[in-house]
Amino acid sequence: MTDDPLPEPDWYDRIRSAVTHASAFRGYSHGEIGVRVTNDAEIRQINARHLDHDYETDVISFAYADEPPTLEGELVVSLETAQRVADRVGWSVENELLLYVVHGTLHIAGMDDLEDDVRQAMRDAECQVMQSLGIKDIVHYGPDRVEVNIKPDHSSSETRS
């Protein structure tokens, strides 16, 4: 995870649940996804090293195996970015971090959002998984609301900018 503990101990269980729900949504029932919660400086280094992108971001996913029913990979998520974006959009840091975990897990499970024709399917999947986690206000604070109402921050590449 991270060298610093998450703000609340139950966040670890919530992260595990987010991975499980997102994996199941895509039809995976076995496997392992490691999640590292870090800061903007470290995620920027990882982004530069592995993707040749010299900026911080919200989540980076690495897929290792995606043959149903087994899914394996790693996620790196920035708690700093989650704190900044949650404050900007007006919902909890925990929900923002869970959205990154769901988003990254869906990427590992084969979904993409780079092209317009598949982006809506990713957004719909994120909303459904977040709602399955009991986060009902995803409709008001989730990815679509941010894309419409928040101007892009060109210093980073957040999922929703």
TrEMBL record:
Q: Which PROSITE patterns match?
A: UPF0054 (PS01306)
Sorted UniProt keywords: Cytoplasm, Endonuclease, Hydrolase, Metal-binding, Nuclease, Ribosome biogenesis, rRNA processing, Zinc
Q: Where does this protein chiefly localize?
A: cytoplasm
- Write one Gene Ontology MF term: RNA endonuclease activity
Subcellular location per UniProt equals: Cytoplasm
Any Pfam family from its record, for instance, is YbeY
Q: Which InterPro entries match?
A: MetalPrtase_cat_dom_sf_prd, YbeY, YbeY_CS
Q: Which cofactor does it need?
A: Zn(2+)
Q: Where is the signal peptide?
A: none
SUPFAM superfamilies this protein is in?
A: Metalloproteases ('zincins'), catalytic domain
Q: What is its EC number?
A: 3.1.-.-
The UniProt entry's GO biological process terms, in alphabetical order, are: rRNA processing
Q: Does the keyword Hydrolase apply?
A: yes
Q: What exactly does this protein do?
A: Single strand-specific metallo-endoribonuclease involved in late-stage 70S ribosome quality control and in maturation of the 3' terminus of the 16S rRNA.
Task: Enumerate the HAMAP family for this protein.
Answer: Endoribonucl_YbeY (MF_00009)
Protein name per Swiss-Prot or TrEMBL:
Endoribonuclease YbeY
Species this protein is from: Rhodopirellula maiorica SM1
Gene symbol of the encoding locus:
ybeY
